[in-house]
Design brief:
Number of helices: 10
Shape: elongated
Helix content: 55-70%
Strand content: under 5%
Number of strands: 4
Radius of gyration: 20 Å
Strand order of the largest sheet: 1-2
Structural class: mainly alpha
Distance between the termini: 24 Å
């Protein structure tokens, strides 16, 4: 009995470690994906517009980057005209990733709203790709910010939980709500790392 108990504890330990490693990998890959995309999107777009590839976009203001993008989508001009209606962080994200235009243009009207209580069809055992700025939950408030801007942690954890449990109702909004109510949201910096382990435990994947 004692040996069996020890084996069970060892097995539980390694399962827990494995899940933690999985969360870390997904969280880091998500951040790396965002960093790579944001750092390279403007350069790719400038090449498409025959602009100088020697421009350092990090030295341009958000407004200057948006003005350059406005040649690709006229809706950006509308956003520029109502610049103060948008969080600066969100405009910075848009200025580096024009694929966010559909989400951002509706932000003033839809901020604070949640449009789905599930992430859609998923396959248990497969980690889905979820976006912070998905219209289904990205407008929702997360502390003094929004999931689109500050919800990287909850979104990454949601991906892991949904993939491992097969429960498609554990959306980034659901995890962000749990995070905020239990003190994992940190104003100015986003989410405490302890959410990744304690949150995973709460949702039954550890």
């Amino acid at each position: 009995m004692k040996k069996r108990h020890i084996k069970r504890k060892v097995k539980t330990f390694f399962i827990t470690v494995g899940i933690i490693i999985l969360i870390v990998i997904i969280y880091n890959q998500w951040n790396n994906f965002n960093d790579y995309y944001l750092n390279n999107e403007m350069i790719d777009q400038s090449n498409n517009n025959d602009l100088s590839s020697n421009i350092n976009y990090d030295e341009l203001t958000i407004l200057e980057r948006l003005e350059k993008l406005s040649t690709q989508d006229n809706r950006i001009n509308t956003i520029i005209d109502h610049y103060d209606d948008y969080p600066e962080e969100l405009l910075d994200m848009l200025s580096r990733n024009i694929e966010m235009i559909d989400f951002v243009v509706d932000y003033p009207e839809k901020q604070g709203q949640v449009y789905s209580d599930n992430v859609g069809k998923i396959t248990k055992g497969t980690i889905p790709l979820l976006l912070q700025w998905d219209k289904r939950w990205g407008y929702a408030y997360y502390g003094k910010s929004s999931i689109a801007i500050s919800g990287c942690g909850p979104t990454a954890l949601s991906m892991v939980i949904v993939g491992l449990t097969g429960d498609n109702t554990i959306t980034p909004y659901e995890v962000a709500t749990f995070s905020e109510r239990n003190g994992y949201y940190l104003a100015g910096s986003g989410t405490s790392w302890s959410l990744m382990t304690e949150g995973a435990n709460h949702y039954g994947v550890m």
